[in-house]
Amino acid sequence: MSVRDSIPVSTIMTKNIISLNATDGLEKAEHLFKKHRIRHIPVVKGEKIIGMLSLTDLLRISFADGAYRNEDDDDGDTIVYNMFTIPQLMARSLERVSPHTTIKEVAEILASKEYHALPVVEDEKLVGIVTTTDLIKYLLDQY
């Protein structure tokens, strides 16, 4: 086992977490996705993660936008967003990793499952998020 095989995911994870509460609206979620140019947002209750909302989850319902959008509606708010809640759209059964999980183990999980982001949890507290983008950036730094 090389030194590289034992590097913890805490070295590449995003620690400055953008999160949502289950009671937040989908307009807020859309705003956060656009503002921070991210594709996954953990949904929390206090410091505990209860789900993950992805941009894909939001886009899945947005296809109906055109049918419901008022042509005079410049701010982009849609009736569709009022028809759903974050808990209805978020993924609930999440695979979690600890800050001590190795980057290699995280890569194996992301490669073998259909996940593109994993919450990093320590003592039930959300401490970070690691995405396929974080992993690719790490791999590019190796070259």
Automatic annotation (TrEMBL):
Origin: domain of life: Bacteria
Coiled-coil features, chain-numbered ranges: none
Entries under SUPFAM superfamilies matching the protein: CBS-domain pair
Keyword DNA-binding recorded: no
InterPro entries: CBS_dom, CBS_dom_sf, Diverse_CBS-Domain
Pfam families in alphabetical order: CBS
Residue span(s) of domain CBS: 13-71, 90-143
Keywords, comma-separated and alphabetical: CBS domain
Protein's recorded name: CBS domain-containing protein
Species of the source: Pelagihabitans pacificus
